[in-house]
Design goal:
The chain has 115 residues and is mainly alpha-helical. The protein has six helices and no strands. Helix 4 packs antiparallel against helix 5 (86-93).
Length: 115
């Protein structure tokens, strides 16, 4: 888990949903069918449906937010363009966690010396 910035309006909506659902720390706000993690395919279908309902036909045909991941990329780019230090953006994006996992994975074993 990591802390990331969230605008006041979205924060308010999320807090209202958390309170209404009586969620506790560690509970999932968006759950899969059996209470587990929501499947990526479900998220993609919901996103595609939302785009069709909210955008014009021309916008739907464009690459505008075609994939959910595009939102992440746009957000990170906006943070960088707004002057947020790249290290902070990497931390918020979880990239520093990935780097740490790679580093914690260890190095290649020492090469055997042949004589």
């Amino acid at each position: 888990m990591r802390v990331v910035p969230c605008g006041p309006a979205l924060t308010r909506i999320l807090r209202e949903d958390i309170e209404a659902e009586e969620l506790k720390s560690g509970d999932l706000l968006f759950q899969g069918e059996n209470g587990g993690t929501l499947a990526g395919s479900v998220i993609r279908r919901a996103w595609t449906t939302a785009r069709r309902h909210m955008l014009t036909l021309e916008e739907v045909a464009s690459p505008l937010g075609k994939r959910v991941y595009d939102l992440r990329h746009t957000c990170l780019t906006n943070w960088l363009n707004d002057g947020v230090p790249s290290g902070q953006v990497a931390d918020w994006a979880g990239n520093s966690d990935l780097k740490r996992r790679i580093e914690d994975g260890g190095d290649l074993p020492e090469a055997l010396e042949t004589g």
